[in-house]
Each structure stands twice: as structure tokens, then as C-alpha cells.
Hints:
alpha/beta, 7-stranded parallel β-sheet, 6-stranded parallel β-sheet
Amino acid sequence: MKVVILSHSSAWEHIGGAELSILQTIRQWRELDPDVEISVVARGPSGLLQVELAKLGVPATTIEFDAWVLPQRITAPEDVFRTQRANLAAVKTIVKMLRMQQTDLVITNTIISPWAAIAAALAGVPHVWMVREFGDLDHGHQFQIGQAETFGDIARLSALVVANSTAVKRHLENWIDPGKISVAYPAIDVQRLESQSAHPLPIEVQSSGLPRVVMVGRLAESKGQWRLVRAVGELRRRGVELEVLFVGHGEAADKERLVDEAQSAGVSDLVTFTGPLENPFPVVRTADITVMASTNEAFGRSTLEYMLLGRAVIAPDVGGSAELLVDGRCGVLFDVSNPASLEDALLTYATDPLLRASHGAAAAKRARALLAGAFTTEVLIAQLTDVAASQVPRASIPHVVESWLDIPAAAQLHFDSLAAQAQLALNKSEEALALKEEALALKEAAFTVLEDQVARDRDSYTEKLRALAQDQSVQRRHMEDAQSILKRENAALSEELARRELDHASELERLRAEFRGSRTWRVGRVLLGPATAVKRALRSSRG
């Protein structure tokens, strides 16, 4: 039998529960049926999953695709086109693979990506969907086409839907016929787990003498580490101290928030972050108390691993953990909506070592019973084999639908053509712009030459005007000097004329005086006397 499994992730940072379940299912399936041929299609780029598959000798095909259950719905037109182009190209690739390999069964692992299920429908191959999450309740994810539509398509595209817990099965029954849903707990290699737990501690863990609480899982708000930090802080205020080890990877921002939370709660000295560990089980072995604090975990793989290692377990009273633990017998369940509930559970174990030991032993026994019960991997493999061998008629999809897979690629070619035309037009525009810029540069050069000439002429004219002004100033000073000299000369001449007139008048007066004293004057008076009298008489008679 040939089987193709789709993994929504390649485990780029760490191998999560979904990937671990795939690997263990492949191991057990090969043990039960050495002739089964299994290959895996995983989302690119390659990660730790491909490394582990290579160790098992399982062929892996890595292709690019996106999700339809994701942290935030894709709405931007460009993003919608880009993701759908990759998704439909992935479907086309998988269809080709299924036909070439003459695949008997396709399995989609998790609800995150539907592309193998669609490919199976197009290729006419039976399909089984492994549902390992709620989607919204546990991870806060959104459904790209709507929740009801998503689960409706899961049912429509699958011959069988396998939930990883009865809690998930009850959730799915809101949209899927219960008769189409089965339950299978995630595959766990118990012997391998016990062997790994016996290894030396991968890190140095200093003992404070306080009861130790260990929580394994990705650092994220939905995983609830903050609940444990606050509870430990409250217990310290009540006089009870616990040391806490958080094992797991996380984004820097998530870890920073938890560090701040520990500081606010006043327990920074009690809390340690080990970071991701390839083998965390030796650390779990050292725990007095183990905690699962997720808001709503679909299964609770860590819960089951704690139980298998005989640890006292505290877990939420919702989701998968609630069906794994029996409250008060092999663990304590707490109400995630009531902080005091977790505090009381921690206090119960912190103050009663004997209770921790008895619950831990009971937890190990129950875990083994669960893995040997009705929801085992062996039962699952039998169901998968039956689906592959069944002759149940499957709804056929028109061939025209398969042709639609080429639409995004054709659109991309069209866009590339338009882009090439636009680039050609842009190149021509750039050439024209370059010519315009060259002409503008020539004009600017001419303007620069003209400006230089004008500047030189202006400087020359300015210099000439300055020289002319200087000449006029000199001429004006010469004229003023000449006028001053002329005034002085005229004044001197006037003084000289006046002086000469005085001299002439004086000389004339002197001559007159000298003449009157002369003999001539006296003779003349005698001679002219009668004539003068006659003239007077005549003037008198006329009057």
C-alpha cells in the first residue's frame, strides 16, 4: 500500500506534537506492515522534520504552500493572489505525484492546510483527515473561508476524520456527522520515552531544596505559562515557595513578557527558563509537580508524557487533558478561569509529598492503559488500511476544475508579460527622459556661459561707471577749485579797483586844490566872472 501524508509544517525551529505523531505513526505502521510505502509532503523550506524522515528512510517532498487556518485571515489582494498561486501550484504538484505513484491513501495531518485533500479528490484517491486542534479555541487561529465552511469541507473531502481526543471529536460534531469521526490518541513510543528520561540532565539544574515544578511547551500566551507564574507568586505571598522550570522555545517577545510577569509577581528568583531541549525528559524526571496550563489544549501530549514518567500532574479541566487525568486520583484538574483553582492545586501537591507519589504512580498506570485502549495507533492503522481498501464511491470532481489550477500560473504569465511591456515602456521613457535631461544639461551649460558673460560685462560696466564717477568727482573738485580761485581773484581785483578809485579821487582832489591856488585859477576867475553873472541873469529871466 502506498501512502502520502501532508504535513503543514517542516518543524523549522523545533519538532512539535503534530510532527512527532507523524514520525511515531510511521514507525509503528512499518512494524505492523513492512510492505507499506509511506512518503511525506511538507511545507517548505526544509526543517527538522525532513532530517528525522531521512533517518527513517522516508521520502520527503518539500513544496511551498500556505494555510487556510492561520493566525490572521489574508485580505490584501496581492497577498491573496500570491498565496493562492502557491496553493494551487502545490495541489497540481501533489496530484501529479499521486498519479505517478499510484497512491492508495492520502492523509492530511492537522486542519491547517487542505491542499493534499483537494489533490486526492482530483486524483480519485481516498483521503483521511487527522484533526489535532480546535483551531480557534487553542491557538486563536482564524478560518480563511469561515469555520463552518472549513469543517464542512474537511468532511466533504474525507472518507474518515480522525480526532486526537474525544474533546476534539465533540467539537467536530458541530459540523461533521459523528459517524464519520473516530478518535486516535497521538502515537507515543513509551520505551523510547523512558530511555530518554534516563539520560543525564542536558543542563545543570541547581537544587534549591524547594518543591520543583516543571512545565514543558512552547512559550506562548495560549500555553498559559503566565498562569503558573502568577500562581507561584500568590503562593509565595501565602508563605509557600516553589521553584519553576520552563522548558521550551519561544519568541523573544513571549519570553520577555514572562520575565516581566515573574518580576511583577516577585518570583524572578524562583523561575528558570531552560530554552528548548532536544531531550527534556531527564528534566521532567526531576520534577515534583508537572503542569499543563494551556487555555484549551486539544489533546495534551505533555500531559500524557508527564503521566508516563510517573509525575504528579496538574492540568486544565477542559480539552484533552481532562479526559486523560482522573481528578483527585492520578492528578488534579483546575479551572482556567479561576486563578485560585491553580493555586490550590499547587498548594495541595507542594505540602503533601506522599500524595504526589501516589498520584504519580496512578498517572503512569492510567497512561499505559490509555495507550493500550480503544484509541491506539494500531486501531488507527487498521482504520486507515480499511479506507484505502474500501470501494466506497467517491464524489467525482469535473475535469474542468483541475484546469482551474492553471489559472494563477497563467495570470502570473500575463502579469509577467504586462510587467515586461511596462518595463519596455519604462525603458523608452527613460531614454526619452535621458535625452531631455541631456538637452536640459546643454541649456543649463549655455545659460551658465551666458550668465558668466553677463557677470563679466556687469563687472566691466560697473568698473567703468566707477571710473567715470571718479573722473566726474575729480572734474567737480577742479571746477570748485577754479571757482574758488576766481572768487579770490575777483575779490582781489575789486579791492584793487576800489583802492585805485580812492587813489584817483584823492589825486583829483589834490590837483583841484593845487589848481585853485594857482595864478591861472585867479586870472580865470577874473576873466570869467562877468560871463558867469550874465549866465545867471539869463537863467533867472527865463524862469
